[in-house]
Amino acid sequence: xxxxxxxxxxxxxxxxxxxxxxxxxxxxxxxxxxxxxxxxxxxxxxxxxxxxxxxxxxxxxxxxxxxxxxxxxxxxxxxxxxxxxxxxxxxxxxxxxxxxxxxxxxxxxxxxxxxxxxxxxxxxxxxxxxxxx
Length: 133
What we know:
Layout: E1 7-15, E2 22-30, E3 37-41, E4 51-58, E5 68-73, E6 77-78, E7 83-86, E8 94-103, E9 107-116, E10 123-131
Antiparallel strand pairs: 1-2, 3-4, 4-8, 5-7, 5-9, 6-8, 9-10
């Protein structure tokens, strides 16, 4: 199992049978997670006008993902709700999540989306956008 931030810690203990010598070693690494792909239409949304947000995710595992949710955070953008339940995702399945958003101020902002499931969590994607008047 992984620990916080998907770190793996491996510890090794080896005993040489002929000499009875013991060697220990340790290695750790971070699991690279997939990223969410985020698109918005139109590319440059206008203040107070609805826009479509598309989030694409491909299940990298050989098993189905259950209790799936997408969470969206975006300063300066109105959302009906931040957390959205989603259907179970089959092994290796590609899914598209669609959401309507309404910008409520002009300027630059960053949309951050997070995907969670029982089997895979904290999958993140982000996209910087410019909102015009």
